[in-house]
Design brief:
By secondary structure, the protein is mostly helical. Helices cover 75% and strands 0% of the residues. The N and C termini lie close together (11 Å).
Length: 153
C-alpha cells in the first residue's frame, strides 16, 4: 500500500485518473505487479472502473431529492443506482466528469437540475476524493489480477 501512495496522492491533487495513469503504472510495477497485468488492468480500470464516481452520483442524487422534498420510491432509488453505475462507466477520467454525468442520473428520475448548483460549491473536494478512490481501486484490482495470474504481490 505504501508503494501506491504517490499515485493516490497524485490522483487526489489532480482529480484526474487519466493524468495519474503513468504514475499508477509505475507504482504498480514497483509493488511487484507484472508489466503485462499492469498494462492491461490499469488502463481498463482508468476508463471504466469509476466506483468513487458511481457512489458520488448516487449520493448526490439522493441528497438533491431530499433537498427538494422529493420522495423517491424503491423503484426510483434502484433506477438512481443503475443509472449512476452506467453513467460512471461512461464518465471520462478528467476533473468534474462526475458532475457532468450527474445530469443523466437526475434526469432519469425527474429531479431538478438546479440542485447541481448546491453540489458544485463543494464538488472540487469531492472530485479529489472520488478520483483517489477510483485510482486506489484500480491499483487494488491490478494486485488481485496479478495474484490470480500467478504473480507474487
Amino acid at each position: 500500500a505504501r508503494k501506491m501512495a504517490p499515485a493516490v496522492a497524485t490522483a487526489f491533487s489532480t482529480a484526474s485518473s487519466s493524468a495519474t495513469l503513468p504514475l499508477s503504472m509505475e507504482c504498480s510495477e514497483e509493488a511487484g505487479n507484472r508489466r503485462g497485468v499492469t498494462s492491461f488492468v490499469l488502463p481498463l480500470g482508468a476508463t471504466v472502473n469509476m466506483d468513487g464516481t458511481a457512489l458520488y452520483e448516487a449520493v448526490a442524487a439522493l441528497t438533491i431529492a431530499q433537498m427538494y422534498g422529493v420522495d423517491l420510491g424503491l423503484a426510483q432509488q434502484a433506477l438512481v443506482l443503475v443509472t449512476a453505475l452506467l453513467a460512471s462507466v461512461g464518465a471520462a477520467g478528467i476533473p468534474m466528469a462526475g458532475l457532468v454525468m450527474l445530469v443523466v442520473v437526475l434526469q432519469a428520475v425527474g429531479l431538478p437540475l438546479e440542485g447541481i448548483g448546491t453540489i458544485i460549491a463543494i464538488d472540487r473536494v469531492l472530485d479529489m476524493m472520488r478520483t483517489a478512490t477510483n485510482v486506489w481501486s484500480d491499483l487494488v484490482g491490478t494486485a488481485i489480477v496479478n495474484r490470480f495470474e500467478g504473480g507474487s504481490s
